[in-house]
């Protein structure tokens, strides 16, 4: 029986929902989107600070040195870096619901001790707060989970743990906790209710005035099955765990998906990073690694059933030539299958930049409240929601399509024209 729920802070309770303050600095410093966050959170000085072996001033000094930021600009950058963070009030409401039913509540965060000053009205709802700087150890080290369990007075099997980072979730699961990767409030409520916790499942009702449905590609139309092969490919290429993801989806990918570098330049990056001899070897890697990539037939059917009744769009962070690649490999032409196809590499904007959502709405000819957006990343749905777009986080396709049916008020797979 679950007697306690333990929450992560950053990425769960507190999230960067408005990326615009960081993006303004990146434009000013002529940096690719995402560079500030990558440089801050990927900085060894940040890990040391979270373990109590340094300070946040050390982190910012390292960031300033790496990015060439003038000392006079640093105070304003430090302020603006966190300006888009928002506390998820729906999750706070869920915590109140759990606590009123007698469930103990814990907070476990890789963070600095100053986090205690940011808890505000949330603090009285917490039975235990464990912060890595105070504990001297970081998730996913089992020691910090055991410390949290001890302070809550529960055994591992009596605790649920919610985090957005997969290694942290896996570590909790390995200790015997009921571990949940955060995929939005609706998904979390369902999982907790299914686990027997006293939580009201979400009640989705039809939305009035919906005129458009916007789909993401990877994780929605494409199941991304190839990602399951990553550990085998890391072993085959002699890479440490997690390295292939960093090579494929790191700064070079972000430049490619913005159209800032060519496919050839990206391929040369892979040649260097993976130790491949030439571009033909890179092409062979693509053919083998992405061999299991495909389309989800249920989503394809849903898209086709919605055409004519709604404006239907595909909004994807992708590479140049993505549409042609899909037509060649799968016989699926997104420019023909959708009323609108928006590829980040073609428009020079990428999710979660609010500008790409506004561009999509403008081209569809609809207002934010007239659109539903489905994506598998909370950071992308947060940005869309901030504009007033209705959103669905796709934790699994079948549930996402059921949620879409509920919000539209009819089955998404029905024949066009039927009610």
Characterization of this structure:
- By secondary structure, the protein is α/β, with parallel strands linked by helices.
- The protein folds into four domains: 4-13 and 86-194, HAD superfamily/HAD-like (Rossmann fold), CATH 3.40.50.1000; 18-83, no CATH class; 212-222 and 294-408, HAD superfamily/HAD-like (Rossmann fold); 230-289, Orthogonal Bundle (DNA polymerase, domain 1), CATH 1.10.150.
- 46% of the residues lie in helices and 12% in strands.
- The chain is built from 22 helices and twelve strands.
- The strands form three sheets. It has a five-stranded parallel sheet, sandwiched between helices. It has a five-stranded parallel sheet with strand order 10-9-8-11-12, sandwiched between helices. A two-stranded antiparallel sheet has the order 2-3.
- Strand 6, helix 9 and strand 7 form a beta-alpha-beta unit.
- Residues 414-419 have low confidence and may be disordered.
Structure described in brief:
The chain is an alpha/beta fold. It has helices spanning 20-28, 35-41, 44-50, 56-67, 74-81, 89-100, 132-135, 142-152, 166-174, 185-194, 230-237, 243-249, 251-257, 263-274, 279-289, 297-306, 322-330, 334-337, 344-347, 354-364, 378-386, 397-408; strands at 4-7, 14-16, 85-87, 104-109, 128-131, 159-163, 178-181, 212-215, 311-316, 340-343, 371-375, 390-393. The protein has four domains: 4-13 and 86-194, Rossmann fold (3-Layer(aba) Sandwich); 18-83, no CATH class; 212-222 and 294-408, HAD superfamily/HAD-like (Rossmann fold, 3-Layer(aba) Sandwich), CATH 3.40.50.1000; 230-289, DNA polymerase, domain 1, CATH 1.10.150.
């Amino acid at each position: 029986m679950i007697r306690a729920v333990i929450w992560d802070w950053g990425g769960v309770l507190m999230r960067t929902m408005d990326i615009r303050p960081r993006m303004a600095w990146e434009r000013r410093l002529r940096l690719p989107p995402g560079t500030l966050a990558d440089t801050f959170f990927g900085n060894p000085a940040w890990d040391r600070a979270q373990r109590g072996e340094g300070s946040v001033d050390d982190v910012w000094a390292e960031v300033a040195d790496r990015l060439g930021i003038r000392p006079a600009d640093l105070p304003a950058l430090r302020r603006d870096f966190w300006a888009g963070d928002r506390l998820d009030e729906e999750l706070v409401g869920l915590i109140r619901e759990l606590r009123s039913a007698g469930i103990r509540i814990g907070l476990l965060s890789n963070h600095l001790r100053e986090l205690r000053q940011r808890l505000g009205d949330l603090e009285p709802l917490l039975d235990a707060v464990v912060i890595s700087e105070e504990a001297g150890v970081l998730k996913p080290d089992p020691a910090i989970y055991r410390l949290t369990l001890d302070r809550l007075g529960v055994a591992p099997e009596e605790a649920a743990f919610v985090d957005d980072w997969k290694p942290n979730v896996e570590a909790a699961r390995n200790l015997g906790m009921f571990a949940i990767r955060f995929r939005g409030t609706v998904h979390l409520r369902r999982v907790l209710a299914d686990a027997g916790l006293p939580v009201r499942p979400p009640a989705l009702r039809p939305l009035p005035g919906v005129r458009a449905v916007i789909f993401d590609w990877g994780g929605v139309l494409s199941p991304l099955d190839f990602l399951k092969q990553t550990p085998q490919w890391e072993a085959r290429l002699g890479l440490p765990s997690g390295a292939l993801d960093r090579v494929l989806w790191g700064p070079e990918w972000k430049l490619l998906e913005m159209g800032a570098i060519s496919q050839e330049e990206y391929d040369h990056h892979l040649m260097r990073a993976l130790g491949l001899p030439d571009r033909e070897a890179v092409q062979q890697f693509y053919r083998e690694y992405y061999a299991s990539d495909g389309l989800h037939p249920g989503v394809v059917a849903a898209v086709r059933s919605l055409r004519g009744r709604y404006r239907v769009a595909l909004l994807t962070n992708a590479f140049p030539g993505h549409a042609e690649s899909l037509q060649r490999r799968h016989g699926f032409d997104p420019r023909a299958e959708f009323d609108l196809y928006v590829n980040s590499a073609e428009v020079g904007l990428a999710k979660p930049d609010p500008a790409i959502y506004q561009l999509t709405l403008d081209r569809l000819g609809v207002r934010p409240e007239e659109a539903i957006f489905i994506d598998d990343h909370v950071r992308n749905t947060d940005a869309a929601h901030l504009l007033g777009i209705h959103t669905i986080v796709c934790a699994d396709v079948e549930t996402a399509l059921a949620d879409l049916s509920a919000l539209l008020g009819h089955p998404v797979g029905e024949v066009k024209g039927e009610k």
